[in-house]
Amino acid sequence: MASSFRISALLLLLTFGAEFPGGAEVKLPDPATEAWTVLQAGLEELRPNHRTEAVKALSLMSDDPRSARYALRALRDEHKNVRAAAAGTLGQLRARGAVPALRQALSDTEISVVLAAAQALWLLKDKSAYGVYYSILMGDKKSGEGLLQGQLDRLKDPKQMAELGVQEGLGFLPFGGMGYEAIRQLHGHDESPVRAAAARFLALDPDSISEDALVQSALADKSELVRLASLDALAQRGDPKCIERLEKNLWEDKSAVRYRTAAVILHLTKIGARKSRGQPSR
User: Fold this and answer.
1) For residue 228, what are the CA distances in angstroms to 37, 105, 129, 169, 214?
2) Which of 75, 109, 130, 235 would staple 86 via disulfide (CB 3.0–4.6 Å)?
3) 76 φ, ψ to 5°?
4) Which sequence spans correspond to the domains of the chain?
5) pTM flag (> 0.85)
6) What would the pLDDT profile of 181-209 be if each residue is shown by its tens digit?
7) Does domain 127-282 have CATH number 1.20.1300?
């Protein structure tokens, strides 16, 4: 209502040439002031879809300290979409000060919020995210970390996972080469794209347990997409010790898995050779 009143007032001012009858001049607000007024109105809207979009817009204001403050406040919003948007915005803003609040959001009752918080923590290079991605990929906790049991139970339900993928999945597919196939499977009500993306996020987890999980998934996961994503993650990790276990895939019936494994083995072999010569990995 207040926003509509301001717009009406501005229209009246423009109609009268920014001058009231009687000659009194009225100074219009500068664009930045009015823009902040509009954005703030969105952040305080009663309708959650408006608050969600306003919080997302804050991600464009990386040079304004107010953006992170308002996003942190939105992380406590009563609506899950607003909280998820807030977590995503804090990650895009690279708001290091938000790490404690984002870690707390990993215990949110809504999986979409948990995944958004995990992605934000991943962008902020915080290891808390890896426990969540391990849980998504393997359906279990990693050394007491990761999702709560109730959250894990939901992730084990293929139908709910597929619904989550359709609603949130595009946000978990930042890696080229997988995109089209992943989107196709999402619309086919398959939960594997979300798990595949989780595998790719584990590429940077230094924990050897995650590496073992990726090798297991590359060799035997029921989803070809997850197997390919796990191979990509292993290539990025660059550990030649995986080669011997991956050799089994060279006789795999699925051609994409077979070819991708061959490329990964060649890549890791070169890394191993450079390491043996004392040269840095590339």
Assistant:
1) 48, 30, 21, 17, 10
2) 75
3) -105, 10
4) 127-282
5) no
6) 444 555 455 677 778 888 988 998 999 99
7) no
